[in-house]
Design goal:
Helices cover 37% and strands 23% of the residues. With 310 residues, the chain is α/β, with parallel strands linked by helices. The model has no long low-confidence stretch (mean pLDDT 93).
């Protein structure tokens, strides 16, 4: 029996063109749950991680709109709220998908913290956009009132940007390890985990966003997972993506992938973090796969996706 960390991309919960309605998200999660249930029913221990970008963005908007009636919550609390909301929906639909296969398991959500270094250079260079677009006037007013950083986002409007530090530790990894040892399917590390730093009083949340793929890789290492399966909206990683000579990658050795990475083949805002997370996991002895949601089960058999290994 192998332990697989399945990292869900945004399309697993909210597909392009959708508004974010509860029913829309539940419909996407149903499709996702079917794929994960197939992997579990084949005898694998599974831990599910997921993104939360649109959902935490919506919570930030609700915070802002209602701040005259109720106190607004800081970003780390908004992240924890999105973990509970999405975890609840995933565990409901995944439990139903397992029941339909006669493969009942306990499915649970763990609100997860990811420890980061308070001196991480990312805190000096906020770069991760969150929340809605505002006018320049509104953005500059917010910067005068707070210590937030706002930037013009490609002419589409101004958005707040926050740091995206590297995860050093998944705080709840021991608890997650105990749960999977007892055949529990765990949903965790939502949105990369709630970023926290350690000081003299213990852990405290910080205003930041952690990359979901790097946090999933850190978790996979800490629980001694056999495979990291990153599900996105394309069936394989491509060289020369979008060009006439683009080429799909099937099996890639570590040294080859590192060379492609140095060449700038993988965009920082798209495939870059996914490939980077895979390479980290492979360097520590694991196996990693990137593929589309519909190929989750066949990818574990080596029949789909891009496989990274030594």
């Amino acid at each position: 029996m192998q332990t697989v960390v399945i990292a869900l991309g945004g399309n697993a919960i909210l597909r392009p063109g959708q508004q974010g309605l509860y029913g829309e998200q539940l419909e996407s999660i149903d499709r996702t749950a079917d794929q994960i249930a197939d992997v579990i029913a084949r005898g694998n221990r599974v831990v599910v991680t997921h993104g939360n970008g649109p959902q935490v963005g919506a919570i930030v908007i609700q915070n802002d709109a209602g701040r005259d009636q109720v106190p607004a919550m800081p970003l780390d609390v908004c992240g924890s709220m999105s973990q509970g909301m999405l975890g609840y929906m995933i565990q409901q639909r995944l439990s139903a998908a397992l029941h339909s296969r006669g493969a009942e398991r306990c499915v649970t959500t763990v609100v997860t913290q990811a420890r980061v270094d308070a001196e991480d250079p990312a805190f000096r260079r906020p770069s991760k956009p969150i929340g809605p677009f505002y006018s320049e006037e509104e953005a500059r007013a917010k910067m005068r009132e707070t210590d937030e950083t706002w930037v013009d986002d490609a002419g589409r409007g101004w958005r707040r940007v926050v740091p995206s530090p590297d995860p050093l530790q998944i705080v709840e990894s021991d608890a997650i390890r105990s749960l999977i040892a007892n055949d529990v399917v765990v949903i965790c590390v939502g949105g990369g985990g709630v970023p926290v730093v350690r000081d003299d009083e213990g852990l405290r949340g910080v205003e930041a966003v952690i990359d979901k793929d790097f946090a999933s890789e850190r978790l996979a290492r800490e629980i001694d997972a056999d495979k990291l399966l990153i599900l996105t909206d394309v069936p394989q990683v491509m060289l020369n993506y979008g060009e006439p000579d683009e080429e799909p990658l099937d099996e890639v050795r570590l040294e080859e992938a590192e060379a492609y990475e140095r060449q700038g083949q993988f965009g920082a805002g798209s495939m870059g973090p996914k490939v980077g997370a895979c390479l980290r996991f492979v360097r520590h002895g694991g196996q990693a796969v990137v593929t589309s949601l519909d190929n989750a089960s066949t990818a574990l058999d080596g029949k789909a996706g891009t496989h990274f290994s030594r």
